[in-house]
Design the sequence.
């Protein structure tokens, strides 16, 4: 009986506390990726539209959800700031059975996320690196690099220019 009373008191206290606490994801770190939020048309470097992307806040501002659509591919990513290790994290899943897990930080005006080293087919090991940069004209560039184990760029898998949809 004593244990039940303690547990009930703890749960009610925790619920009451959570209802009265300020926004859990409102500190500046949680807003470092806000420049990517919006409705976007995405173009390659020659000006051809390659897709559309909708980026929005979810879960009381604690998650940024991406919904990508191109001619043959759709995908969703969930992006969040992890206060435990002060990193940004992305989990991507698409309709081509692709998935990607990235981790990194915002610095020098850009969000830079990387995967762990992966076993390659053409090289022994590689990692993915995606960099989002906000430009003065309001566009955002997204560059997806394939790096070797020494972080040398092997190739650019994607370079997209995001323009706000009107």
Sequence:
């Amino acid at each position: 009986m004593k244990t039940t009373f303690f547990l009930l008191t703890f749960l009610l206290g925790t619920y009451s506390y959570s209802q009265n606490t300020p926004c859990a994801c409102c500190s500046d770190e949680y807003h470092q990726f806000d420049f990517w939020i919006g409705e976007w048309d995405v173009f390659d470097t020659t000006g051809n539209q390659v897709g559309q992307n909708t980026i929005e806040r979810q879960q009381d501002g604690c998650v940024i959800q991406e919904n990508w659509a191109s001619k043959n591919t759709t995908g969703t990513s969930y992006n969040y700031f992890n206060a435990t290790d002060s990193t940004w994290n992305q989990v991507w899943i698409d309709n081509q059975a692709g998935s990607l897990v990235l981790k990194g930080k915002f610095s020098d005006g850009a969000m830079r996320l990387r995967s762990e080293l992966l076993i390659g087919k053409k090289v022994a090991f590689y990692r993915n690196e995606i960099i989002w940069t906000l430009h003065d004209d309001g566009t955002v560039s997204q560059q997806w690099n394939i790096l070797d184990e020494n972080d040398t760029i092997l190739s650019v898998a994607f370079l997209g220019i995001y323009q706000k949809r009107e």
User: Anything to note?
Assistant: Residues 25-164 form a domain with the Lipocalin fold (CATH 2.40.128.20). Residues 5-12, 14-18 have pLDDT under 50 and may be disordered. Residues 81 and 164 are 24 Å apart (CA to CA).
